[in-house]
Specification:
about 15% strand; 6-stranded parallel sheet; Rossmann fold; 9-stranded mixed sheet; alpha/beta; 17 strands
């Protein structure tokens, strides 16, 4: 552990908190969700003394940012920065809590960027690449973040009623400002949170037993091997420079201690703003509604080749950043192949459609999938027109007691159009396993794994696979629903991660009343295993992967999936009720106290 002292909670009323991250108003990954969902809890504690600091995009502030005129001390600080040519946009983030936001324009002239790089090398012995667009942005943003925080600290400290300034940084892309502040603004207290070590993420992608081998890893050799020496050095300097160092889970704390040379002072587990997900007693109704939307996708995708009994079809999914091994996509597919064989062997009358939702470079939506989706929509329109045509006449005849031949009520035009549309919907061949055409299909590991396992969506196979290499949204013509709605419509989320510092995807399932599977190599899974003794009973399965072979864990996952398939509808409804009732345990109103502890600890340091 570090030498930061253990101290009693401090009164935050005498301080200003600036939380700095690359993903403020900038949706890139999971940190965006952390900061966004935590905002109401932070505003509740800190009020107007809380503000977020992030980079301003080249095209100007995003739509979720609303400009506001600064006042008081903030206006004084921003004017002083503007006088030095540093442009900072002041406003509110249009999310729950409406936190104050500063977006700094950080692009530098070549001369200023070169000077900033030299300063990093001269002061902190970090050698930076000569021309790397991402690294150049990291350097320029860190430099500007340092200047903004230093100026705010000067104004706050020079006021009639001075306030201390606490700066909390997330990830290495903003953390380089920490050693700058320690050198030139000693009065600022700093907290650094790494959500995953950069080096650990690379190593885990190439080592199935990463955590078993971690104790003997040489950080300098591994950083050179993966060509991330500069990034690793920045992250290490950030961790060692911070007054308080934190990470999101004990399992990530292990890699911090080994790869960064400093164990975290405290753990800050990630929560959600559950109010955003809370739909009261409607969550079962919403499951049924969005399941119908998935039914519609399945009809357009599979029915042109063959029919499936949708009343006996379950929807499983996995999702996340495209890191197939880290996210457990490979294990999901292995387990699905085993489940397919088991359902065949037992002649169990259940179909499973397994969705893999991620983000990959694509050329276009598969024309076949798009074509049949369009024809299905046309069939729906034809059916609506036919119903409009017959319903009034059918009602009148039915009320009068007449015998009705429905064929007589439908005009020849709509009858023929209905049959032609039915014919157009038919397809020769099997449904595709992927919804899009990839830029590099030949070398895609997920697609190759699907082919290797023979999961070709044959009619006789109870398990079907849909690889969806774009995130689901309302603008996607295959869906027309949001990702969160898709999650609500599914029956089970499957996330057997091999490397996951926290893992929001299973937590989002819990928030939506959907049972989920995580692993003991995910921070969220480790948290559940340590704090929720009965998690398996109410719908959160923690798969054991640590100390097990890939084959052993895959077989265990398949066994658990088969057990879920054996549940009757009443059992699944009951399980969703249990899951939804536990969601409050992960609300920021409960988990926010860990951030309070980190902040109080930093403020207490003399």
């Amino acid at each position: 552990m570090s030498d930061a002292p253990t101290t009693p909670p401090q009164d935050a009323s005498g301080a200003t908190l600036i939380e700095c991250a690359w993903e403020v108003c900038n949706k890139v990954g999971g940190i965006y969700q952390v900061i966004r969902s935590k905002a109401p809890r932070m505003v509740e504690r800190w009020g107007s003394r809380y503000c977020l600091l992030g980079p301003c995009p080249p095209g100007g502030p995003p739509l979720e940012f609303e400009p506001k005129r600064p006042a008081g001390r903030m206006a004084t600080a921003l004017k002083a920065l503007a006088d030095r040519g540093i442009v900072v946009h002041h406003g509110e983030w249009l999310v729950s809590g409406a936190p104050r936001v500063l977006l700094v324009e950080h692009r530098m002239s070549p001369e200023d960027l070169a000077a900033a790089k030299y300063s990093v090398w001269d002061r902190y012995a970090i050698e930076l690449p000569g021309a790397d667009p991402l690294m150049d942005s990291v350097i320029s943003f860190s430099q500007r973040a340092f200047e903004v925080i230093r100026e705010i600290s000067r104004v706050e400290g020079g006021a009639k009623k001075p306030r201390r300034v606490l700066a909390h940084f997330h990830e290495w892309m903003s953390g380089l400002a920490i050693p700058m502040l320690r050198r030139d603004a000693e009065e600022v207290r700093t907290v650094f949170t790494t959500h995953a070590t950069l080096l650990g993420r690379y190593m885990a992608s190439n080592d199935e037993h990463f955590y078993d081998h971690l104790a003997t890893a040489d950080e300098s050799i591994e950083a050179a091997r993966y060509n991330v020496k500069a990034q690793h050095a920045i992250e290490r300097a950030s961790a060692h420079g911070a007054h308080v160092f934190t990470t999101v889970s004990p399992i990530t704390g292990e890699e911090c201690a080994r790869l960064l040379g400093r164990a975290p002072d405290t753990i800050v587990p990630n929560g959600l703003n559950m109010e955003r997900f809370d739909v009261g007693h409607e969550f079962q109704t919403m499951h049924a509604t969005y399941k119908e939307a998935i039914h519609r996708f399945v009809m357009g995708y599979f029915f042109p080749s063959y029919e499936m009994d949708l009343d006996r079809t379950l929807y499983f999914f996995t999702s996340g950043r495209f890191e197939p091994k880290n996210k457990g996509f490979d294990m999901c597919l292995e387990a699905m192949a085993r489940l397919n064989a088991q359902l065949k062997e037992f002649e169990f009358p259940t179909n499973v459609v397994f969705f893999i939702v991620t983000d990959r470079p694509t050329l276009t939506i598969n024309p076949d999938a798009l074509h049949h989706r369009a024809i299905l929509s046309e069939l729906g329109s034809v059916c609506e027109e036919m119903m409009d045509e017959v319903k009034s006449e059918l009602f009148r005849r039915g009320a009068s007691g007449d015998r009705v031949n429905l064929d007589d009520l439908v005009s020849q035009y709509w009858s023929l159009r209905f049959r032609r549309t039915q014919q157009a919907l038919r397809r020769e061949g099997l449904p595709p396993v992927i919804t899009h055409i990839l830029e590099d299909e030949q070398h895609d590991p997920v697609l190759n794994h699907i082919r290797q396992l023979g999961l070709y969506n044959r009619a006789e196979d109870p398990v079907k696979v849909v690889y969806h290499p774009r995130f689901i949204s309302t603008v996607n013509p295959l869906w027309g629903i949001e990702y969160e709605q898709f999650v609500r419509g599914c029956h089970l989320g499957v996330f057997p991660s091999a490397y996951e510092p926290w893992g929001y995807t299973p937590l989002e399932c819990i928030a939506s009343g959907v049972p989920a599977i995580t692993s003991d190599l995910a921070g969220f899974g480790r948290y559940a295993a340590e704090h929720l003794a009965d998690h398996d009973k109410w719908g959160l399965t923690v798969l054991t992967r640590r100390g097990r072979s890939f084959e052993e864990a895959s077989a265990d996952l398949a066994r658990r999936l088969l057990a879920f398939c054996r549940l009757e509808r009443r059992g699944r409804v009951s399980l969703r009720n249990e899951v939804e009732s536990r969601a409050e345990a992960f609300d920021w109103s409960r988990l926010g106290r860990y951030y309070d502890e980190a902040h109080d600890r930093a403020l207490a340091i003399a």
